[in-house]
Specification:
Elements: H1 2-26, H2 29-38, H3 40-57, H4 63-77, H5 80-92, H6 97-108, E1 119-124, E2 137-143, E3 152-153, E4 161-162, E5 177-178, E6 182-188, H7 197-210, E7 211-222, H8 231-244, E8 246-253, E9 257-264, H9 303-314
Helix pairs in contact: 1-2, 1-3, 1-9, 5-6
């Protein structure tokens, strides 16, 4: 089982490395991503490895799935949203009576309390739709290369987001996305899959567009380092998301994961899908600075970081 685990993990990290290496030499994120889309065999190999890791190797140890579920339950049903709004009001030290009344109104009129309908959840990079088992969620699961039939094939980078509609969207063979149509967007182990910081920024901005006001963005990234090792990166990501229109409501560092939850706190942003890339430098990972040499088997860079990348999936016995 251990050798199979390592083989599958090497497949995953090998694809990540291929994308970053391609970006290093081409300096063209769009070209790298388009080539990846066209390489169907590589994508299927990756998807099959991830599906097997998730459903066989890591089966029954669903730490990231349970963390997301529990966080959403606490936030929407057990007072988490009210606490976040109250904290925001105090931080802003509102003095105007009008503003106080507005904030108190938001605190007392929680649309998510006593809801009869399910929370609409978008799982990006889903692979196998793991959140469908929870009765609280109505799931839309998408992936560039789905691992199961209930996941819709979709390139989230290229989707067009249509204006908000108050009418029921007719059934169609083509998946459409509208502004302010989801309660939850989940990026689980997907942002670090993207080779370019600009692509991560577009992902986060599109999540902001798709979420309703006070909706929740979940970001989970692999991290086997110590608690404080990547704190500068965590703070930098927080800054980027705050600029887009989010406020962080929860953060946990688990043994091999960084788990973050952000509330959409604004209905208007000073950015759009094009200009948001000015924040790209904030959504970095330690591996983004790796240096490669052509026609050399061993790449020049931080050996410790190389080992760190390889360990992410080999040390994640609970990610599914």
């Amino acid at each position: 089982m251990e050798s199979e685990h390592k083989k599958l993990s090497d497949t995953i990290t090998g694809v990540h490395e291929h994308l970053k290496r391609s970006l290093f030499f081409t300096k063209d994120a769009n070209k790298v991503w388009q080539n990846h889309i066209e390489d169907e065999n590589l994508r299927k190999t990756y998807s099959s490895a991830m599906l097997k890791l998730a459903t066989e190797i890591w089966s029954g140890k669903e730490c990231r799935i349970e963390w997301t579920y529990n966080t959403c339950r606490e936030y929407f049903y057990n007072g988490g949203l009210q606490k976040s709004l109250s904290r925001e009001m105090k931080l802003k030290q509102i003095s105007s009576q009008t503003n106080k009344e507005w904030c108190l109104g938001n605190l007392t009129s929680n649309d998510y309390e006593n809801m009869k309908c399910k929370l609409k959840l978008l799982d990006v990079g889903s692979c196998y739709n793991p959140f469908a088992k929870f009765e609280e969620f109505s799931c839309v699961a998408i992936d560039l290369t789905p691992g199961t039939e209930d996941v819709v094939q979709c390139d989230f980078l290229s989707i067009d987001i249509l204006p908000q509609t108050n009418y029921a969207v007719p059934l169609s063979t083509t998946l459409t996305f509208h502004e302010k149509s989801f309660d939850i967007v989940v990026f689980s182990l997907v942002l670090t899959y993207l080779p370019a910081t600009e692509q991560r920024t577009v992902f986060c901005f599109k999540a902001w567009q798709l979420l309703k006001l006070h909706g929740l963005l979940i970001i989970i990234s692999p991290d086997s380092k110590s608690l404080h090792h990547n704190i500068p990166m965590v703070k930098s990501w927080k800054q980027a998301l705050e600029n887009i229109g989010f406020v962080r409501v929860k953060y946990d560092k688990l043994s091999h994961l960084q788990c973050m939850a952000f509330r959409k706190c604004r209905t208007h942003s000073e950015f759009d899908v094009a200009s948001c890339v000015s924040l790209a430098h904030l959504l970095y990972t330690p591996q983004d600075n790796k240096i490669y040499e052509e026609d050399v088997c061993d790449d020049v860079g931080d050996r410790e970081d190389d080992d760190f990348v390889c360990k992410q999936f080999s040390e994640l016995p609970f990610v599914s």
